[in-house]
Structures are given as C-alpha cells and as structure tokens.
Amino acid sequence: MRKILWLSHEVDLGGANKCLAEQIHILHDAGYHVEVIVLRDAIFADHVRSYTKGIHEIYFYAWVLDIGKKISQFRFWKRVFRNSIAVWKIYRLILKVKPDYVATNTMTIPPAAIAAKLAGTPHVWFIHEFGEEDHGYQMFCGLQRGARLVNWLSAKVVFNSEAVRKKFAAFIEPQKQFIAHNPVVIPENETGSVNDSVKTVLTTVECLILGQIAPSKNQLEALQAILLLKENGITANLTIAGNVVNDGYEETLKQFIQNNGLSQQVNLLGYTDNPFALLRQTDVYLMCSRMEAFGRVSVEALKFGVPVIAADSGGSPEIIENEVNGYLYETGNVKQLAEKIKQFSASRHQFDSSAIAANANMKFNSVNTREQLIRIFA
Q: Contact 149/141 with Cβ under 8 angstroms?
C-alpha cells in the first residue's frame, strides 16, 4: 500500500483545495494511505478527515508576495525562521510516517519539498496556478529561480492544464512533467443537467459568474458587456456570486452597477453555499478571468448542461469548443464578449444540454483522474 504525505496550502475550500480533496478521496478508494499536513485543522481538514489516516497541524508561510508589494527585512527573516521550523517538523514527520511520496498542493508553499529533499523521499509538486497572470503574485526569488527550485526539489511536477505546463516547461525536466486534471465531482444529490422546460422566457439571457470577487476573476468585464448590450436594446441579466477577497474591487462593481442603472439586471450576491442551485437557473455561464489556470467552475457548468462563454486564455481553450459547448472571446474585449452573449441569445436552441453534460462528464471524472494519479504515484 502506497503512503503519501500531502501538504495543503490553505485551510479553506478554494479551487485548488477542492481538487486536492477529490484526489485524496480517489486515492483513498484506490487503497492508498494518505496523511495531510495543514496550517490549521479547519474546513479543509474536516472535509477530508474520513479519507485520511492522519491530519497534522504545522505552521508555515508562503514564499510568494503580491506583485509590487515589498516585505520588510524583519518580516522576511521571520518567514525564513518560521519555515525553517516547519521544515524540521515535516522532516521528523516524514521519518515517522515513512511515506513513499511527499506532495505539495500549489506552488506557494515550499517547506514540505525541502523536508522531503533532506529526508531523501521523492517529492511531487502539484501546480494549480500561473501565479503572476491569475493571482497577481510571484515567488520571492522570481519565476525562473523559483521554477528551477521546484524542479530540483521534486521528482515529479504535476500541472492541472496544458496551459500551465507550458509556462513552466522550460524550467522543469521533461520526464518530470505530468498532467492531472480536476475530476470536478458533482455530489450525487446535485447530479443532472439543467431542466430546459423551466426556461420558457427567451427574451432575456440569464448569465452567471461564480468565484472569488477579485480583479483576477474580471467580473467588471462582464458588467461592461451587460451595459453595452443594454445600450443596444438587448436585455441580459447577470448574477455574480462568490466570496469577497478584495473589498475595494467589490465596491468598484457596486459603483458600476449603480452609476449605470443596472440594479434591475445585476444581482451581486456575494458568497453562496449552494452554487449548483444557481447553475440550474442560468442560461449561460461567463468565465471572464484574465488567465484561468484550469476553469473548475466552467466544468461544473458544463456538467449541468450550461454552455460557457470564456476568455480565450489559460486553460479555458482546453475546455471550451466554439459553438459546441459555448464560445471563446478575446480576453479583455468587452465588445466581443457582448457579441457572444448576443449570439448565444439568438442561437441557444442549437446547444444540446444533455450532450454538453455527457461530454463534460466523459472528459473530467474520477476514473480518468484516478489513472493519472496512479501513474504519478507509481
């Protein structure tokens, strides 16, 4: 039985941790022994507890900063000191657990990789992000040095899309590079595509965006498209739901809605604990992120039979096929986004919800991810 000691980078259930939770569940069902290192025993730990053989709390810091943000010498050396302690604790844990592999979720946290190197245990680094382009952060030592460190510290480096792999490919040895897609598991009580019979009104388009309220998710671009459609006599409604991680950006969205008279067309919900209910009621999903590494929510929408209009960047072109399960538009081109929404409004009957859901489930599922993970942890 293979043993894996896996470090989670955060305590909540963001996209990368949802993927990690699904991967742990898949490996548990495949007979693997998985133990998890967390910063704090909280939401994520509760979510995976029944699929793990142990959860270990160890305090650590990230080795990334927002682009343009400076860190004082005191804070820098404080992080170095704290992470040195974390490396020592993880090293001792490796000697105790004796895992076949140590794994790290996202490129933001280095202690487990360093500890694995010291212990002589193979390390697998799972990279779920571009860093600069999507989340607006960079490693202290810069991209090239950081990526080369990831390569040196790891036996294998796993990417969640071909687009992310391409960014790092020049710095990672080819034989170390692997792809493992998010399985995007929909709970059994939520399965099934959208009920088209509910959608009897065809004069408006119901649009939806899910995800963090942050500049990287680019909700403002969707609002600008809705306004452009309104100015051209086309009505489209938009629901925006997600956890607010940038108060200033949320205020920008609110001001745009108010200043342009969109309050009757736009519903800014904030956090929702039932995104699937929103997907059931929408006509089309908008993925406006400036650079989405994978596009988990896009796949969720497709699994509900909802077409997706996505920015032609990052991992979205690997998921969206023009006029088959949605449309791609030029990133940052508000006019083109509005045109795609208008085009969808005129041709929505051409999209087969059942076929969209079936194809998404065929491509992204636990069986495929299980095969990818077993190959990685062979």
A: yes
Tell which residue, 3, 18, 48, has the closest CA to residue 128: 18
With contact defined as beta carbons under 8 Å apart, do 50 and 30 qualify?
Answer: no
Contact between 314 and 293 under an 8 Å Cβ cutoff? The reply is yes
Stated pTM of the model: 0.92
**Per-residue pLDDT tens over the stretch 128-150:** 999 999 888 888 888 899 999 99
Question: Which one-letter DSSP state was computed for residue 75?
Answer: H
CB-based contact 111:91 (threshold 8 Å) = no
**Within 10 Å of residue 344's Cβ, how many Cβ atoms?**
21
Pairing of strands 156-159, 236-241: unpaired
Strands (DSSP E) contained in 42-159 are 54-57, 64-66, 101-105, 123-127, 137-139, 156-159
82, 84, 90, 93: CA torsion to nearest 10: -100
Write out the two tokens for 18.
């949802």
The per-residue pLDDT for 200 is: 43
Whether the CB-CB separation of 276 and 297 falls below 8 Å is answered with: no
Angle at 38 between CA 79 and CA 108, to 5 degrees: 50
Asked whether the beta carbons of 52 and 34 are under 8 A apart, the reply is yes
Phi-psi region of 131 (alpha: psi -120 to 50; beta: other; left: phi over 0): left
Nearest Cα residue to 290 out of 182, 130, 162, 105: 130
Kindly give the pairing relationship between strand 64-66 and strand 137-139.
antiparallel
Inter-CA distances, 96 with 40, 120, 282, Å: 20, 14, 50
C-alpha closest to that of 215 among 249, 172, 190: 249
Each residue's pLDDT tens digit, 315-357: 999 999 999 999 999 999 999 999 999 999 999 989 999 999 9
127: which strand partners? 159
Rg of the chain over Cα atoms, rounded to whole angstroms, equals: 21
How many residues make up the chain in this entry? 378
- CB-based contact 138:110 (threshold 8 Å): no
User: Which residues are CB-neighbours of 290 under 8 A, at least 6 positions away?
Assistant: 133, 134, 215, 216, 218, 311, 313, 331, 332
